[in-house]
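Problem statement: downstream parser choked on a complex file, so we are re-checking the raw output for the flavin-adenine dinucleotide run. The parser issue turned out to be on our end (a line-ending mismatch), but while we're here, posting the original submission so the record is complete.
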Amino acid sequence: MLAAFEYFAPKTVKEALSLLAKYKEGAKIIAGGQSMLVVMRQRLLTPEYVIDIKGITDLDYIKYDEKQGLKIGALTTHRTIEQSLVIQKHFGVLSEMEGNLATIQTRNWGTIGGNICHGDPAGDPAPVFIALNAKLKLASSTGERVIDMEEFSKDYLEVALGPGEMLSEIQIPTPAPHTGTAYEKLMVMKGDMGIVGAAVSITLKAGNGVCENARIALANCSSVPLRAKKAEKVLIGKTINNAILTEAGEVASTEADPLADVHGSAEYRREMVKVFVKRVAQIALERARAA
Ligand SMILES: Cc1cc2nc3c(=O)[nH]c(=O)nc-3n(C[C@H](O)[C@H](O)[C@H](O)COP(=O)(O)OP(=O)(O)OC[C@H]3O[C@@H](n4cnc5c(N)ncnc54)[C@H](O)[C@@H]3O)c2cc1C
């Protein structure tokens, strides 16, 4: 049973922002409700005012051009991202990631903004966005600010949204030439939350194939989606081979600080980080070579 609340369904961003400004900490946004209703039912959240933004069609879009990169409106559903031909062509890793996120029913209704703002460190999109160097546009009645995806998650289910702020857009730059990105998670069944997950992006120098840049982010390995910077350093400046990939996985597992739960101990998860970082980096490397 949910605690009582007052319900609003604004149809514009401006209307939503003025409601957020008016009700501040007492207000909570709901988009697809796939996570929000769970935490409300558990009484982890008991907002006095619920602002349902699902009807704001202006925040449901995917735009791409080579200069500006990719822009995804916060209310775009997982399924729309999965099936977008533009995303399949230019950011295939996003479409692949979405294909393994939850069930089709959840993907049909859950939004990308809701996923990011829920702040679950086991979520799939955040590590992929970190690997792709994404930024988030946050709007409030007093203006807008842009924050790195990497800085957005603060703790378990806590993100850097101020009172009165909402996420409006995810921005992803066009990757440098010779870049490959991949993401995989350890699942018991397809569509499960990952026991661990790894996203890796590798950029090679033209001509000699030396790794110019690498970004590695882990899912479910800390209280936030975790960037494995020491493991990145193992790859950067090297001609990557099997031994270097193994070392990157080992170093990433020392950066991981996972919790134990019914799906696996912390030790098991660290072992899986070794396997997944190596495996995913190998795929990213092959993609970078082919790009
Ligand atoms: C059965 C099931 C399986 C799942 N499996 C996976 C999985 O495998 N991988 C995975 O990553 N996720 C998984 N999820 C989580 C799912 O992806 C999220 O629940 C969903 O994307 C959240 O989007 P929503 O629109 O429903 O957000 P809501 O539930 O409406 O909101 C979630 C949170 O975000 C806030 N919020 C929403 N939109 C905004 C905004 N624009 N600005 C500011 N705050 C906002 C809300 O206030 C709330 O705190 C699963 C969920 C279910 C129910």
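For whoever reads this later: Residues 64 and 211 are 27 Å apart (CA to CA).
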